[in-house]
Amino acid sequence: MTSLRRFVVVQLLMVWQGGFLFYTSAVVPVGTELLGKVGQGSITARVTDALNAVGVVALAALALDLLLTSDPSRRRALSRWALWVLAAVCQGGLFYLHAVLESYMDPDRRAVMVIPPFYPTHRVYLWTSTVQWAACLLFAWLTLRAWRAEDAERVLPEARA
User: Fold this and answer.
1) pLDDT for 34-59, tens place per residue?
2) Which helix H or strand E contains 23, and what residues bound it?
């Protein structure tokens, strides 16, 4: 069961955070070049729906893993929880900011109708996404370390970290 749980955590992190990284580094520049800002923005409005939904599922799986992993390092476990809380707060902020951004667009989400507040709000959305990505990157690193320590505890219980 531990292997399956860990596999699911890794897969969800890859889809969620890997999808975010690939989308922002590859799809957005290419889409903007081919479709312009308006066309790419229309696509992004829809893609972020999916990324945010996957984020909720991933955060639930990460919380479960936090509860079930027997990390011998209290400091690392607390750090993982703090990063999870940061990622979850960012996720809540992204849902809110996404709704605000959509309120500035036409009903079909094809064009920005209220331009002045859109771009500053969009910058906050991008920074929030970036903070979340960095938190998840560090969370993933600490998770691998926690799993390694947990496995070592099972093999050599006297080798407490």
Assistant:
1) 999 989 999 999 999 999 999 999 99
2) none
Are 86 and 135 within 8 A, CB to CB?
yes
* pLDDT beyond 70 at 158: no
The residue whose two tokens read 């505890």 is: 153
What secondary structure does DSSP assign to 82-140, as a single string? HHHHHHHHHHHHHHHHHHHHHHTB-TTSSSBSSHHHHHHHHHHHHHHHHHHHHHHHHHH
Q: Which two tokens stand for residue 61?
A: 């799986």
Q: What are phi and psi of 111, to 5 degrees?
A: -150, 150
Q: Note whether 125 and 112 are within 8 A (CB).
A: no
How far apart (Å, rounded) are the C-alpha atoms in residues 108 and 92? 23
Residue with tokens 């409005």: 45
pLDDT per position as a tens digit, 1-19: 999 999 999 999 999 999 9
Residues 6 or more apart from 28 whose CB is under 8 A from it? 40, 44
- Tell me how far the alpha carbon of residue 25 is from its chain's centroid: 15
- Which sign, positive or negative, has the C-alpha torsion 154, 144, 146, 9? negative
